[in-house]
What does this fold into?
Amino acid sequence: MIDQPAPLATSPFNTSSPARLPKFRCRNVQAYYGKTRVLHGIDVDIPDQSVTALIGPSGCGKSTFLRVFNRMNDTIPNARVTGHVEMDGIDIYSDQIDPTVLRARVGMVFQKPNPFPKSIYDNVAYGPRIHGLADYAGELDDIVEHSLRRAALWDEVKDRLGEPGTSLSNGQQQRLVIARAIAIRPEVILMDEPASSLDPIATARLEQLIDELKQNYCILIVTHSMAQAARVSEHTGFFYQGALVEYGETNQIFTNPVDQRTQDYITGRTG
Amino acid sequence: MTEPKDSHKARAILRSRKRGEWMFRLMGLGSVILASTILGWLLLSLISSGHNVFYQHSLDLKITLDRQSLFSQEVPSQQDIRAADYRAVIKTALEARFPRVQETDTKKELYALVSLPGASNAVRQYLSENMQTLSESRSIILPIPVSGPVDQYLKHDEGGVRVRQTMSAQQRIWINALIEKGDLKAHFNMRFFFAPDSPNAELAGIGSAFLGSLMAILIAYLVAAPIGLGAAIYLEEFAPKNRFTDIVEININNLAAVPPILFGLLGLFLFLELGGLPRAAPLVAGLVLALMALPTLIITTRAALRQVSQHRVDSALSLGASHMQALFHHKIPEAGPGILTGTILSMAQMLGEAAPLLLIGMVAYVSAPPSSLTDAASALPIQIFLWAENADHAWVERTAAAILVLLVMMTLLNLIAFIIRSRLERK
It folds into this structure.
């Protein structure tokens, strides 16, 4: 158990963390919905600037665990998270942390592409606007363009930024949502089955994008597709019935799992 | 292919299942047909008895306006013109039209051809607009509203036994003479829409009741919409889940089913006894209707809020929006069409509500249109209620016509709600 923040980082806004230190440290993380415990004491370190995949059968708690990192579980009535979660050495569940500030640093992409019923421009500009990130007139335009470029969507939409975000294709919508998340300059991007509603071509584009983004971001991705986990991630955690059964390098998990349950799942015998 | 052993039984079961489905469909179709027949019949009977009201007859009468016999002053003021009695002028004009009438009784029959108060009003209005006529003392031809029985007689094709009985033989001769001359004309009945109530059916209109309803609905909307919206948002988004809010919720649901007349009693006590507000005022009517509309409004608003996809709200939250921002930037705009529809529909319902208004004193005959929110006024459903008490055919027709107007208004409101919803939901 780590009770004290690591000495290197002193402020919750400190964004400089040495690459070798883990982005997140989780110790004995438990989550409850009412009286039902859905996470049974998770201990794990999540590395920065890489992709960590969370796999497991439905209802195993991997999505709940993902929502631990941006405190989205706070928004669910009756949900409760205990234990210790550190980001850059700071306890993100301490009273000093405002969840809205945390969520500006930890972006999230959901399963279903869900652009706001606004223009493409306004979708991306929404986050910067509410956080006041643009100081002068043209800066918002720059942020929007930069974010759309990072999300590999700029070339497809630059001539129709005024059109509603919902008019895009599913794959484009999902990249728009990623651009929207990037626009507030997060350090972490959480992805909850981001490709589950996309066709194979859009999925390939998305995976390519994830590969590019990991240079700058810590990415956590929940996926049902083991092939996808194998393709995009450096590390993989296997969840089963609310417990993190096995965590390690993706290669090792998929080729030589230690736990029998992991083996059963990746070979298709369970799940 | 060999049939399974119990295929006979299976087929029997299948047959009975199909029969069940067929019966169910038939019953459903029957109910729909029955319901629409009843509705259609209601509408048809309303139209057939009410359509006559939308036109009315008037008599072009040559009237001589003589200043000296009408006014004592040299130059009468507007006040004098308003106060003067013009019945004599009308009577003289009628006598001039049929000079052979001499006996008093026959004269009375002659005067009964026109609506004397309506005729007086027509002359009064003409004079107040054209004062110079007095000094020139010339004759003018004015359209004078005919009396109720004559109007009925003309409308019913000089037929209907019941109508004919109200006319004497002599009167019928006069009417026919007037028709032949082309002095009796039918025209669109503006009076019905704009005139206030009157003891004379041929002069009565829904104008002031309409205005009273409009004022009351406006007040009800201005009071109920913000309170209902606020309560719904608070209950849906911020209220803690505990026994107290459970009780509040149950009570709101129950209040929506409380008989309207009880809201009238509540309003009587709250606004008239405690608040000291005047009886029959559109302000009080609006407040009572607001009370009545609140539970439904809260329920529909909450339902609309609950229908918003949590995904969008989650998206906003995940971008670091606060609860309030997610609510006001995303959830409420998205629930907007639903909330608006609910509001309009509940206002339409309030428009047709009579019972609570009766209790706050809106039962008296009010002739003048309300000039302020605290003036005594009537309302459309109340007007209908009052007119419906008269068995006279002219009143039955007017009641039906007023109901038609109310129905048209409610249909319009529902249509607006429908259009808003389909417009906004397409986005």
Summary: Confidence is low (pLDDT under 50) at residues 1-19 of chain A. Residues 137-150 of chain A form the longest helix (14 residues). The CA atoms of residues 68 and 81 of chain A lie 7 Å apart.
